[in-house]
Write a structure and sequence with these properties.
The complex is a heterotrimer of chains A (487), B (219) and C (321).
Chain A (H helix, E strand, L loop, with lengths): L1 H18 L4 H27 L3 E3 L4 E3 L1 H18 L2 H11 L4 H23 L3 H19 L5 H33 L13 H7 L5 H19 L6 H9 L2 H30 L2 H23 L4 H22 L2 H32 L10 H4 L1 H14 L6 H16 L2 H26 L13 H19 L5 H11 L2
Antiparallel strand pairs in A: 1-2
Helix pairs in contact in A: 1-2, 1-5, 2-3, 2-4, 2-20, 3-5, 3-11, 3-14, 3-20, 5-6, 5-11, 6-7, 6-11, 7-9, 7-10, 8-11, 9-11, 9-12, 10-11, 10-13, 11-13, 11-14, 12-13, 12-18, 13-14, 13-17, 13-18, 14-16, 14-17, 14-19, 14-20, 16-19, 17-18, 17-19
Chain B lengths: L2 H24 L3 H26 L2 H28 L12 H18 L1 H6 L8 H17 L3 H23 L4 H29 L13
Helix pairs in contact in B: 1-2, 1-6, 1-7, 2-3, 2-7, 3-8, 4-6, 6-7, 7-8
Chain C lengths: L6 H34 L9 H10 L11 H20 L15 H21 L3 H32 L4 H10 L7 H17 L18 H4 L6 H25 L10 H28 L8 H21 L2
Helix pairs in contact in C: 1-3, 1-9, 1-10, 2-9, 3-4, 3-9, 4-5, 5-7, 5-11, 7-9, 7-11, 9-10
Classes of the chains: A mainly alpha (487), B mainly alpha (219), C mainly alpha (321).
Chain lengths: 487, 219, 321
């Protein structure tokens, strides 16, 4: 029942935004719906971390601990993003960039986007999961091209093309899993389905050759949506051209939802093939993503693209953590998902403000931000510190724990390599940050007036640092969620 | 229906899907390419129809009708709107020229046969033995997506990938559960709608939609 | 006598009959194609046996050789005629048991035809003129793309019959009529039609009536011959046309080919072959009427397409075995 409610609330808000002409309260309404989703997520988590998974809609929706955690992540980041909607839309309408009708469409698409993501994490059937992930591509295309500039349209074209190909490959992988299940020898034809639980039950009997092909296709396919190399090239374009709250939502949570799909499939593959082959796959894409991110961050000129490539890096880290596969590793991966969601969305939203205030997204043209715009610069700077994995922010503890878990499994060479790449990334980002933030400027410091920017972002950073120090509220949930897919 | 008729019909329709894919690589007129895509949609629906008849599967029959409506009629119709907006009607300078593309397609067809052997080995039957044809269509579609410059050609490449995967799905599993199939086909339609709207928007705002000029975003 | 005693005698008679038939029939086919084209264009056109009359005229004329040419030019007409005649003798045209039928492998026949083409190309280079060299290079380009397509298309057929011996393939197809309508056959047929059009130098690949520098391929190579040399070369080209058309028809529609030992059947097979090849010639001629000559750099596209169709035929055959 709760899971159904989680879907209905944002959907309802979307319908309202579609029907009712644009008003300020529609923007606030979408923030309210996200708050509602977060609340439901928390409620679901409390239920499922101690009791059995919850089902709704005749078993179409299923919330176990992992799904509930994902709902919490989606709710949190979407709350941050939708809180920006009223202010951003008002500003854009005032400046003539958007019309009221396009603002309505913006809210409708955002709500559709959030609903699709929630469907994906709450789906019991892997086919429905696929449909939901594909639907997010369609919903976000017009969000990416919202500003209708030539670059935005180019970015959304590339986005749709590459992600559609990737998602098609993921469909083929799903079909192959279904094919293996049909001919596994243990299931009667009437009972075979793409439900994750039934697939996990018959996993040991699935044909090895077919499953190997399937998991490779799935890693390539869903990996495109996650932004893992080698199919990452759409990420920088799409996330840099989209409006800031959309980038926040996409980078913060959409990538993670696609990774959630990978986790589900990896669990099946581990049960069917043993840990080695899937682990090798994930290590390859993980290290490749780190390498690509490291190389492309060195001479980066645009700070939004810098943030996007940093997402590629963090997704690579997630892949390496999932490769380790132990309970500790998966728990760290999940914590990293939440921390990255909070941090990246903070950074994107503040970068949106910087872009609007400075009029450019080039690193070279933004100087002495801390001196001229202390609050904005401070938030951006703290966000970058959090992103780089400094304590007390939670990304530190999640990266450290992932490394520990990888060493425990014997992947010390992976940890060594990733540390090399991370050092390069650390230096690059610090360099760019120094360029943007530091320096003296004699002009008067401009205060940032908007509460709706400062309060949520500061709250996000505070939450992240709290989680970095004490995992207390999440510990049971993380343990239960990790247990679902860990090996 | 008798077995040999079923096998023959299946071979014919599946083969037609791949031949249409090869023809899209071969021909230069964008209009002809879209017509080939339409034939391919019809052939794909025919494959599903033959399988539905043989297995007496109503869900698959509904899927066949859906595929015919969407891929055989609606999608080519939408692509025609895109053609009207893109002033150039011929693929005059693909990244890899036509004879080399065709030879590469032949190579990809052989590769697909090798790759699919594991799949056929799991459950040998008249239908699964034709899986290489579906995989070959996917590879040819991917090739076209990567080497062509016209926006319509890239969309056609994407649709070839989708059609190939749909063919593999029909042959391997006689279709996935109906709701997933519905979702997949509708998603294809929506993707084409989205792409078409993008082209229309770009055309309205910036005069024309030329992929050659879309080189501004890079590192 | 109505039956021959030993198969060897039968084979010898059959092969001689084949060579004579193609030697006479090749030019007749060319005349037929010209006539069909003329009628389609609203003209009366030359009589069908005009090419034979031209050949007789040429054979009586004086032989002239270019001053700086070598033995290659002297020997080329004989090699072309000889190799083509040998290929005709061992191919399954009117019977499935011609002479040396055990050696009538696909590769042998293609090799014999190739010997002829390569010799023509070398002789074209031999005189040192520009036209000759140009024609040779164009012909080899077309040949380089057409040969693989030809081989792969017939390999598709040979996979089905489990042998690459052409007479055996024809015999197997006669006993399994259901094979004719498989997708493999259709694909191989289309591929082979494209190849045959290329190899025999018909439109849209090459215009047999042109002598313009821009458009000549085969004609450019024969410019330096005169008299009986030219007669032999033209006869060789006509026999090549006849052989390829007859092989094409016999591989796909083999009924009418004599499989037994009797002479009357052999003679009936001659009639059937004449009928089938005339139909094919008329069809090709109609294709010619309706198509313009392809620009030279577009010819590889057509041939590559034929190659892909041939590969498709092979893969379809492997996949549906």
């Amino acid at each position: 029942m709760l899971s159904l409610l989680a879907l209905v609330i944002p959907l309802l808000m979307g319908v309202i935004a579609l029907v009712v002409p644009w008003r300020r309260w529609i923007g606030w309404g979408s923030a309210l719906s996200s708050a509602g989703v977060l609340g439901i997520g928390i409620a679901l988590s409390i239920t499922t971390s101690s009791h059995a998974p919850v089902s709704a809609l005749h078993g179409t929706l299923r919330a176990d601990a992992l799904s509930s955690f994902m709902v919490v992540v989606i709710g949190t980041v979407s709350l941050l993003a939708t809180l920006q909607t009223p202010r951003v839309m008002r500003r854009e309408i005032a400046e003539g960039i958007t019309t009221a009708r396009r603002a309505s469409y913006y809210v409708v698409l955002m709500q559709a986007f959030i609903t699709c993501m929630l469907t994906a994490v709450l789906a019991a059937n892997l086919g429905v999961l696929w449909v939901a992930v594909e639907a997010t591509t369609i919903a976000t295309t017009f969000l990416v091209s919202h500003s209708r500039t030539k670059k935005a349209i180019e970015a959304s074209w590339k986005y749709v093309m590459l992600c559609s190909v990737g998602i098609a490959l993921a469909f083929l992988g799903t079909v192959l899993v279904y094919f293996a299940a049909l001919h596994s020898g243990v299931a009667t034809p009437g009972t075979v389905s793409l439900n994750w639980t039934s697939l996990m039950a018959i996993a040991p009997h699935l044909n090895h050759g077919v499953m190997r092909l399937a998991i490779t296709l799935l890693v390539l396919g869903y990996g495109t949506k996650v932004g893992l190399a080698p199919t990452h090239s759409w990420l920088a374009d799409a996330h840099s051209q989209a409006p800031a709250p959309v980038s926040a939502l996409m980078s913060g949570v959409l990538l993670t939802v696609a990774f959630y799909a990978l986790l589900r499939f990896k669990a099946i593959a581990d049960a069917a093939l043993g840990v080695d082959f899937p682990r090798a796959l994930f290590i390859v894409v993980g290290l490749l993503s780190l390498l690509v991110a490291a190389i492309l961050l060195i001479a980066q000129r645009d700070y939004k693209r810098m943030l996007a490539y940093s997402s590629v890096e963090h997704m690579g880290l997630l892949a390496l953590g999932a490769a380790a596969g132990s309970s500790l590793a998966i728990a760290a991966v999940l914590l990293h998902m939440l921390g990255h969601g909070l941090t990246k969305s903070t950074l994107f939203i503040s970068s949106g403000e910087i872009a609007h205030a400075e009029g450019t997204t080039e690193i070279a043209k933004v100087k002495a931000l801390l001196a001229r715009r202390p609050v904005l610069g401070g938030i951006f700077g703290c966000g970058l510190i959090a992103l780089l994995g400094f304590p007390p922010f939670s990304l530190f503890i999640s990266e450290f724990t992932m490394a520990r878990a990888e060493v425990n499994v014997g992947l010390w060479w992976v940890v060594a390599l990733s540390l090399v790449f991370l050092s390069v990334i650390f230096v690059s980002i610090t360099n760019h940050a120094r360029h943007m933030l530091l320096g003296g400027d004699s002009s008067v410091a401009v205060p940032l007036n908007a509460q709706s920017v400062v309060v949520p972002l500061v709250a996000a950073l505070a939450t992240s640092s709290f989680m970095g120090v004490s995992a207390w509220p999440l510990l049971t949930l993380l343990r239960a969620a990790a247990h679902v897919v860990a090996r | 229906m008798s077995t040999s008729f079923y096998v023959g019909a299946l071979e014919l329709t599946a083969g037609a899907v791949l031949v249409c894919a090869v023809m899209t690589l071969w021909r230069r007129q964008v209009r002809t390419i879209v017509t080939m895509l339409r034939f391919q949609g019809v052939a794909l629906a025919a494959v599903a129809g033959v399988l539905a008849w043989h297995e007496h599967d109503l869900g698959l029959a509904i899927t066949a009708a859906l595929v015919l409506a969407v891929k055989g009629a609606l999608v080519p119709l939408l692509l025609r709107r895109v053609i009207r907006l893109d002033p150039r009607s011929r693929e005059t300078a693909p990244l890899i020229n036509v004879p080399a593309s065709l030879v590469s397609a032949a190579f990809l067809i052989v590769v697909s046969y090798v790759v699919s052997s594991k799949l056929t080995a799991l459950a040998p039957s008249a239908a699964t033995r034709l899986v290489p044809i579906g995989v070959a269509t996917v590879l040819v579609g991917y090739f076209m997506l990567v080497t062509r410059r016209r926006s319509v050609s890239q969309i056609v490449g994407l649709l070839l990938v989708d059609n190939g995967i749909a063919l593999v799905t029909f042959l391997l599993t006689a279709g996935v559960p109906l709701i997933v199939e519905l979702g997949a086909t509708l998603d294809v339609l929506l993707v084409v709608v989205v792409l078409q709207v993008l082209v229309v928007n770009a055309g309205a705002q910036h005069g024309s939609f030329d992929l050659d000029e879309m080189r501004e975003l890079h590192d | 006598m109505t039956h021959v005693g030993t198969p060897l005698a039968y084979a010898i008679i059959a092969s001689i009959l084949q060579v004579a038939l193609i030697a006479l029939g090749g030019p007749l086919l060319m005349g037929l194609m010209a006539k069909v084209r003329a009628r389609a264009e609203g003209r009366v056109g030359a009589p069908i046996h005009q090419p034979l009359r031209d050949l007789r005229k040429l054979m009586g004329k004086e032989r002239l050789r270019a001053q700086h040419s070598s033995a290659v030019l002297a020997v080329a007409p004989l090699v072309v005629f000889g190799s083509t005649a040998l290929a005709v003798a061992i191919s399954p045209l009117v019977t499935t048991h011609p002479l040396l039928s055990a050696s009538a492998d696909l590769f042998v026949i293609v090799y014999l035809l190739l010997t002829g083409s390569v010799t023509m190309a070398l002789a074209g280079l031999d005189t040192g003129t520009v036209f000759g060299g140009m024609g040779s290079s164009r012909a080899i380009t077309v040949g380089a793309l057409a040969e693989p397509a030809l081989l792969v298309a017939v390999i598709a057929l040979s996979i089905q019959a489990r042998t690459s011996n052409l007479p055996a393939i024809v015999a197997d197809t006669i006993t399994h009529p259901v094979w004719t309508s498989t997708p493999t056959r259709i694909l191989a047929l289309v591929a082979l039609v494209i190849v045959v059009i290329a190899e025999t130098g018909r439109l849209p690949v090459d215009n047999p009536n042109t002598h313009l520098e821009l458009t000549m391929i085969h004609e450019a190579m024969t410019l330096e011959y005169a008299g009986s040399d030219l007669g032999l070369v033209t006869l060789g080209a006509a026999m090549r046309l006849g052989l390829l058309f007859a092989l094409l028809m016999n591989l796909f529609v083999p009924w009418g080919v004599a499989t037994g030992n009797s002479i009357p059947w052999l003679l009936a097979a001659v009639v059937f072959l004449a009928l089938k090849t005339s139909l094919l010639a008329a069809a090709v001629s109609l294709i010619e009427v309706h198509s313009a000559k392809l620009r030279l750099f577009r010819v590889p596209e057509l041939l590559a397409g034929g190659f892909v169709l041939a590969v498709l035929a092979v893969i379809t055959q492997l996949a549906t075995r």
